[in-house]
Amino acid sequence: MEVNKVRRAFYEKSTIGLGKICLKLRLTPNILTGLSLVCAIISGIYFWKSKAWMGVFWMLMTSFTDMLDGATARAGNMETKFGGILDHVSDRYGEFFILAGITMSKMVHPGWGLFALFGMIIASYTRAAAESIGKIENCAVGIMGRAEKFTLIMIGAVMENYHPQWRWLEISLIIAGLTSFITSIQRMFFAHKILNQKKPL
Questions:
Q1: pLDDT tens, position by position, 101-125
Q2: Is the residue at 163 inside a domain?
Q3: Which residue in 18, 53, 78, 115 has the fewest CB atoms around it within 10 Å?
Q4: Domain region containing 136
Q5: Residue 59 domain flag
Q6: Predicted confidence (pLDDT) per residue in 36-90, tens digit
Q7: d(Cα 63, Cα 54) in Å, to the nearest integer?
Q8: Of the candidates 159, 181, 180, 179, which has an alpha carbon nearest to the alpha carbon of residue 169?
Q9: Distance in angstroms (rounded) separating the CA atoms of residues 34 and 99
Q10: What pLDDT was estimated at residue 7?
Q11: 120 domain-assigned
Q12: Which residues contact 145 (CB under 8 A, 6 or more apart)?
């Protein structure tokens, strides 16, 4: 957890400048959250049409605008509970549209797309349940986070263009799905440990 805190602090410090630029452009965190979702929908459409390069580009834009909304909220001291909820819900919708597009494309077997989609959603849900029901401050633990899974899928999509016979995108979905289920289990164990520590002696 200490390593995660250090990484988080570095991430927040290094992106605060971009948040200040967004404030000057009159872009609010919620507007950026909406833009991130729009980018995810566009990415999913391109993947659905088997246009992997454009799908990857709009996935990058999804991640970039998602990063900007948090940076802008911190830069302008505009962080709110509703904004956090909106961001998390928007992220889940974004994951759905991107992975649904990949699933419906001709690049992968639909089963593996559904496998990765459910895995990513259940990993996020486990964290949300631990933090809301269990009142755990931060349950963002696990073998692989959302950003790493997105990166893995983008690499798989790019490699698919060059060596489709190796089924790189399918492989990336399988890995993303497996690590998501492992992450969910890790978060369950972490939540169990923290809740046991909170029990009165």
A1: 999 999 999 999 999 999 999 999 9
A2: yes
A3: 53
A4: 107-201
A5: no
A6: 999 999 999 999 999 999 999 999 999 999 999 999 999 999 999 999 999 999 9
A7: 14
A8: 159
A9: 18
A10: 74
A11: yes
A12: 183
Q: Is the dihedral of CA 171, 172, 176, 177 positive or negative?
A: negative
- CATH (domain of 184): 1.20.120.1760
- pLDDT at res. 12: 82
pTM over 0.70: yes
Helix, strand counts (H, E) of the chain: 7, 0
Q: How wide is the angle at C-alpha 163 spanned by C-alphas 157 and 167, nearest 5°?
A: 60
79 Rama sector, left if φ>0, alpha if ψ -120 to 50, beta otherwise: beta
Among 166, 167, 169, which Cα is nearest to 153's?
169
- For the chain, the domain total comes to 1
pLDDT, tens digit, 9 for 90 and up, residues 9-30 = 788 888 999 999 999 999 999 9
Amino acid symbol at 98: I
